[in-house]
Design a protein that fits this description.
about 240 residues, alpha/beta, 7 helices, globular, disordered N terminus
Amino acid sequence: MEYKACESAPVGGALLREFPRIGIVLLAAGQSRRMGTNKQLLPWRGKTVLDAVCHALQTGWVQSANGSSLVNYPFVAVTNDNRNIDEIVKNYGFSVVHNENPELGQGASIALGIQYLLSTYGRNYFDGIICSVSDQPLLCPKVIETLIQYFQQRHDADNRIIVVPKYGFTQHAGNPVMFGNHWFDALQTIEGDQGGRTIICGEGQDFIKHVYIASDWGDDVDTPEDYNDLLNRESEGV
């Protein structure tokens, strides 16, 4: 069963607690080869692309938790030891783990992030973890709220659910992705740059649920052309 953002989530499935315990892993160790410069630090709306992503993740999580702001959030950013990036993510409540080998791809960063959260909070603390990339400047809190709301209504004792957003007119699948805690072991062993897609396209494909987001809030910026296109759309109010 699926539903669209701004609609009520379907009632059903086990609700294990009023608000599920959700962690966030932010992947910010990419080498930005196709961009030619660090894309997370590109200017966006008076700050940076990374600020926009972190704001959406933090605000969406807080709003889903009924406005419960914390001193320490269950968030971790995996970075490549870039001081500017580390300072930005810390401003939004993220702990920082450094990926000393970013050339190994997203899989290594996801594993580091999951390992940090589980070692810090305990293996059985989290019901689910959101894995997010750091190059989606249009990402908004409503996306995070939608992922958490759907997960809250549909997860059960097995927690095999994987919640994937589909964006815009074309309804293309994108990030962030919510993984139920059944997948935590697998997330710590994936390799290469496919990241969570290894599970989504493999043993997890039968457990995927989609939430529909009407706007193109999931667009990322991999190349200078992508970035310029988003700047042009921003200036035109599209």
